[in-house]
Write a structure and sequence with these properties.
This protein is an alpha/beta fold. The chain contains 12 helices and 5 strands.
Length: 259
């Protein structure tokens, strides 16, 4: 791999993270890299690779593989990536059962390196990483975090319109806005997110307009401009006042985005 750090895209649901991940998937593929969309491997490893698992010599890769396939990632190399990841996980389970592994954090790092082996650079998008920043920093210490933010009223309205089997979806506007705040509070409180060498905050409308895309491409040292058409701008609502806590959180995030 090159010296370029892994790129992790985070953000509240309905913030445009999947569209941004599609841009990065295309851009990374152009330079021999792999960007998975909802690969969620670090998220799974945080739960299933613990000191207790290693002590018992019992790594539940069957559960991890099932979780990876239950709602499979997508992207240019997703199918091949899943096959490689399963092979790496099975090998890890053998090593754990033999008592050859003692450090769960190092094992997570080794599995991630193996899953993306052969790529010039790699990255992943998964919204729930935003809720596990300490574990994410532990498993991928050199990663560059990209937080995509979107107007909270737009996020709330999109969330309430979201179809499908999503039992965790809020039931009304107030709950949706409160969840939006809860998802961003860990970011604002984490010491790592203040370091612009390690983190970039991008606002959704700026991204779609091209200004944010150019800034992000410069930060990540990859040309994103050719894939701008993968982004669709949705104007922010202007007919509803935000509760104080929501407005304050939004203002702080805009400040981190340089707006």
């Amino acid at each position: 791999m090159s010296d370029a750090p892994p790129v992790i895209v985070l953000g509240a649901q309905r913030s445009g993270t999947t569209a941004l991940a599609s841009v990065l998937d295309a851009a990374f593929d152009k330079v021999g890299g792999i960007f998975t969309v909802n690969g969620k491997l670090p998220y799974i490893l945080h739960r299933w690779v613990t000191a207790a698992d290693l002590q018992a010599r019992h790594l539940r890769v069957d559960e991890m593989i099932w979780a990876l396939h239950r709602k499979a990632p997508f992207g240019t190399h997703s199918e091949r990536w899943l096959g490689t990841t399963e092979t790496v996980l099975r090998a890890a389970a053998v090593a754990v059962s033999a008592g050859a592994v003692a450090d769960p954090v190092q094992l997570r790092r080794d599995v991630l390196a193996g899953a993306y082996a052969g790529a010039t650079r790699f990255g992943d998008k998964y919204n729930e990483y935003l809720l596990e920043l300490d574990a994410l920093a532990e498993s991928l210490p050199d990663a560059h975090w990209v937080l995509l933010i979107r107007n909270p009223e737009a996020v709330a309205r999109s969330t309430l319109r979201w179809a499908g089997d999503r039992p965790w979806r809020p039931s009304d506007r107030g709950a949706a806005l409160a969840k939006w705040v809860a998802w961003h509070e860990p970011w604002l409180a984490h010491p790592r997110t203040a370091d612009q060498r390690l983190c970039t905050v991008v606002e959704y409308s700026q991204l779609c307009a091209g200004r944010g895309l150019s800034r992000l491409g410069s930060r990540l040292d990859v040309d994103l401009a050719p894939y701008r058409e993968l982004l669709t701008e949705s104007p922010a609502p202007t007919d509803a006042a935000l509760p104080t806590r929501v407005r304050d959180t939004w203002t702080r995030l805009l400040g981190q985005a340089g707006l």
